[in-house]
């Protein structure tokens, strides 16, 4: 640490509170670096008086050697030179040394502090283990510390702290060091708060004496600025700025009330600010503190401009620290205007032109200071804050030009030159901060006032005054660009008028007409001026050559409306487009032709209508409406010559979708910009025709005179809104409006880009035939109505045209005498002629014009097949469900559906149209065997699964192959009964037989049904038939026994009989094999005992080959063991269709429904060679966990269950007597 030297104080934020150090200087020097670094690391809460909010601050300190000269003297208010804390350092550990020298040194130190009233001090005793080891007569360290506390800290024991080995890294040293830093921060903050509060009280007292004689604002200024310096030192810039704002407000109040004896009583100090202004060098913002002007204020010699310049420079510095540079520009403009007024109020003498020089230099200084602390993007975003300063500087430069004779047509006189020399002399020498800057305000003003040529570079009006319009146009163009970019409409109008004058002198016809058009539609001009420029256009319009101008200056496109609103019509129809335009001219304009250029494309049009997509394209912009109206944004280039025309083109965004070519599923979507070429371009390139308000006027462009155009001739556009009607062409295709052009004589007003994109379509549609039911579900078994709809498209239905429908036995078309067809958009109906043959039904169509719709209804009847339908699931060999892509049953009610396909030949096509109708079977039937002793009953349950109520009549159960020994006795009393929706009816028959029953019994259930709502139930009854078969199984006791016994093996014989040959559909689904002329299919059987009465010993399942022939029988024998005694029911026997892995299913499986945990390794072998199915499932499940991913998607055998009613379990409900085993155990009982 260096000794304190007497140097002038530099008042900057780098100042720190002063802390003096006495005692052992070498000891403190060794600790100085660590102390200076660690002191500001932790923040302290600073609580201030008068209820001000606390703040967190980081304290730093400037440690200097203690000298008596540093202690404050009476009347010294300088806080920055005030020592806030005094520290005495010692590492004495010897009592004798303490008594001999250290104690006396401390007494002198404290006496000096007491003499100057300093009560903020601290004694630090540094303990060193190394020093203690070198001493033999050392008392414990507490003895020295206790002596110091007894001698100096009787009532303030906390003013003496112990620092243990601060240079070591032990925990004890760290704790000691941390406690010392906390104590130092606390004492320093307490002293700082106390002295600062005392200073503020003295400052308020001094301010309250401002009405007393002899009070000086300059003295008070230095006192309050000292407080601002302290806040700046603590980096509390907001508080520091408040002090300068208060000084600014106080001085302004005195100036405004100058001459009022009551308010300014005793304010003689204002006289020093009324002295003539001798220097006008402008603001200086490149220094944190302008010490030269501060010394003038301190001595009371500052002028008004000096005080204002210094005060604003300090405010500017603090605002930049607060990151509020744009507030500097706002305050600067107010300051410059206020200074001019204050000089007038105080009647200060100022050399003519001196104030203009001061304002010009100050404006440029502020602008350069802001540019130095902001990047380019910030400057462009906040250009509205700086335009006022640029305008003010321009006005002052213009005033200096007239004053010094630099604008007159003649050369400057000697008087002008003398005045110029005097003004430049008042600037003084250039400041050191800007000497090396080529664009400093000082150099610019010197250069501008040095010669006429130099002044013309800085102020462009002189070029017009000197008769050089070519140079003036370049200057005006640059100025116009700035005004347009910043949005100053009045300046834009004024500059355009000057440009029009230059262009007319230069005979730039096209540019002059474009500027005249902009001025003719400019609302900032008077009516007479607008008419003058409009007449200029009409004058040139009658003369060659042809000139193309921007439409934005002539008219404003407001709205387009299509009729019809969808903007989609077929060939031959009329499409009208109404265009609403606002004419910006002040008089009526005769337009010879208004044409809209169209872009024709066949991509969107074509053979079929696309009304939905075209309607979306019509209003693709944000202003698109659903009623065929397209609104144009007012800020677009079409919005005229107002400020809205200054905006860039809006984004044209289109939705882009990428679909899979296989199933048209959406794979990706995005947004694409169609007008990227207009948005992504350089700003300094030549402007397009759509942006005439840019600085450079657009060059002429070729008007697109394509073959596809919408034209309207001889139109008179009145000032304001106008409506023009176009008729669109009717060729098939898609049309997009590209360009709009209005011709006024030889002048063409062109709008080369229209946004939002406006499109319409003309399509040619192929005839289409659709068939749809009139009810939610078509029910099989009863007549149902379907509606035929024919959209004729471009085809004209002629007399004799007919539809040829192929007949099917399962779905005949019913004839009706009242069948008629209706042609939409016409009145009345047309009778249909229906003729049927064995294979074809012909329906004659009435004549129908193109693009009309023909509708008629027919009745169809779908017969219910007697064989039950298959369920909607298949079961694989691993027991899991295989889902079909399309269910065979209704999703809500479980109704089984029947798909009927009809082939239709249409007169407009050489190809047949295949139509599919889905019918739903309204009933679901199932049967069961009931037993009562030795009596057997067959019960048939018929459930109404539809939403329609029916009458059921004449239920009958018969044998398909009648036998004399078998009789079915009906127990049904009612011959006719209602079957409500979602309700069931049960029918019961008793079986009586004289001989043993066969192994298989084929049965057929039939009944008649009709809807309850039918008018004639007798004729409306339709048949319903349900066929099923009954099989049986036998359990035989062991040989030699009459009955089965518990725990003994019994023989189980399973007999499987095929009652009928499979149908064609079933034959396609079941893969058959032929060996030596015998065709067979595979079935899988499985014996399952869900009640745990039987134990299946050995093989419980297997695959058998069944011959494809009626009455074919296959017997399987196995062993079972009864587990309980009594009448036990037979085990359950399940039969499945076994489809090999290479068999093609009847309905192709959905690729998304592949099983994820199927096992295949065990299924590659035939199931005939496998063991128990339960063990197969167990092993398969374990295998699938580890190899499911590898085996996924491979072909595997499947198990398909039979439909309900296809398999009858003859032994259902039968029981077998099982006797308990003989108990041969001997029980011994001992009684004592």
Task: Name the features.
1232 residues; alpha+beta; seven-stranded antiparallel sheet; 26 helices; TRAPPC10/Trs130; TRAPPC10/Trs130_N; golgi apparatus; seven-stranded mixed sheet; transport
Q: Which residues sit in consecutive blocks of at least 5 with pLDDT less than 50?
A: 1-11, 604-624, 636-647, 683-702, 869-887, 1143-1193
**Overall geometric form:** flat
Level of helix content? Answer: 25-40%
Mean pLDDT metric: 77
- Main sheet characteristics: 7 strands, mixed
Strand content: 25-35%
- How many extended strands? 54
**Structural class computed from helices and strand pairing:** alpha+beta
Q: What can you see in these coordinates?
A:
29% of the residues lie in helices and 28% in strands. Strands 8, 10, 12, 16, 18, 19 and 20 form a 7-stranded mixed beta sheet that branches. Strands 31, 32, 46, 47, 49, 52 and 53 form a 7-stranded antiparallel beta sheet that branches. The model is unreliable at 1-11, 604-624, 636-647, 683-702, 869-887 and 1143-1193 (pLDDT under 50). It is an alpha+beta fold and 1232 residues long. Strand 35 (923-932) and strand 36 (935-944) form a beta hairpin.
